[in-house]
Amino acid sequence: MSIDFSPERWEKIRRDYTAWWAGDLKRPLVHIELPNAAHPRRPEPMLPSKSFHGHYDLSVSAEDIVDRMDYDLSCCKFLGDGYPSVWPNFGPGFAACFLGATLEKGSDTIWFRPQQLCNITDIRFEYDSKNQWLTRVKDICRAAMQRWEGSVQVGMTDLGGTLDILSTFRPSESLLFDLYDHPDVVKNLNWQIHDLWWRYYDEIDNTLQPINPGYTAWSPIFSLERYYMLQCDFAYMISPEMFDEFVKPELAASCRKLSHAFYHLDGPGQLPHLDSLLSIPELKGIQWIPGAGAPDCSHWPEVYRKIRDAGKLIEVRTDNLKIFDTVIEQLGSGEGLIAFLRPDSESEAKEFLDKHHIQV
């Protein structure tokens, strides 16, 4: 195998992440991946590497995409709690395409458009077993299972939040008015999407299991039980009262379907909803992202303390070792924290891991 990661290291990943989820790991999880730090033991494929797999033409086979992933992983070193992982990346809220939205490619992004704009009362969502994008994701997952046979963790594609998916078909300003003008219709559509969302999740998961080592999402927090990073980016535009009415019931229902549910808290506009989120018993953790233009993670100790005091786990969304160290110092310990770090060098990474008594 061209990827340097032994079965013994996989066993340690399973043991330490399981202890972290249970609150028994008395240190932070520190996932370090060093790109281009290893010498691949295989030739580079002709297919170029792309961050978004939706940028590949549909004529490119799933096997060739997975082969490119394999080469990129073979160039990496994984230190600390890091491990080889990938996920089919078609952009956030990709389930909208399973429901009929059109995928549009930008030079360094992907977004989704409705085929036509409809009134909220005219929208219906149905399952389509022949949807080309659902088929594409499952083909990539199937090819990954055949190629790696469980030696690489393959994460769930970014399905998105249910109201975020609905906002693809009712662009945000329209959907905001719909909350006032047609609240029952919005709730009904949100639950329609919820049911379909879980059908997609289970269908893709059935392609991955039982070969896949465990569960991850676009944020690769490893879990032996079902995990997902839930979200509702639309929520930054609504009040806490509307959050509790339109978002929280569906979100809590999804948390109950997962063994390990996290929430993607994106930007200061979502902070008014934090208390409501923390009151969901089945929600295991929060990923706090300060957002573009806001002070970095080291400037929000009160947010992290509130999350920790509620008994939740925390993903500190920074790749900077010094910032993560500052957060640990502010909280008094790194227990219950995880970060995905990108040091400038292997020596810097080893120094950091040694400081926190983590095996390289």
Quick recap:
This protein has helices spanning 7-21, 62-74, 95-98, 132-148, 162-169, 172-181, 183-208, 240-257, 274-278, 301-309, 321-331, 346-355; strands at residues 29-34, 77-80, 85-86, 102-105, 110-113, 153-154, 227-230, 260-266, 283-289, 313-316, 337-341. The protein is α/β, with parallel strands linked by helices and 360 residues long. The longest helix is centred in the middle third of the chain and has 26 residues, at 183-208.
Shape: globular
Count of separate structural domains: 1
- Given helix and strand content, the structural type is alpha/beta
Low-confidence stretches: none
Radius of gyration, in Å, reads 20 Å
Query: How many runs of DSSP E, i.e. beta strands?
Result: 11
**Hey, roughly how much beta strand do the residues contain?**
5-15%
Strand order of the largest sheet: 2-1-11-10-9-8-7
The CATH topology assignment is: TIM Barrel
Question: Can you name the CATH architecture?
Answer: Alpha-Beta Barrel
Q: N- to C-terminal separation?
A: 21 Å
Task: Give the helices and strands as they follow along the chain.
Answer: HEHEEHEEHEHHHEHEHEHEHEH
Number of helices: 12
Q: Give average pLDDT, whole number.
A: 96
Largest sheet: 7 strands, mixed
Give the helix level as a range of percent: 40-55%
CATH class: Alpha Beta
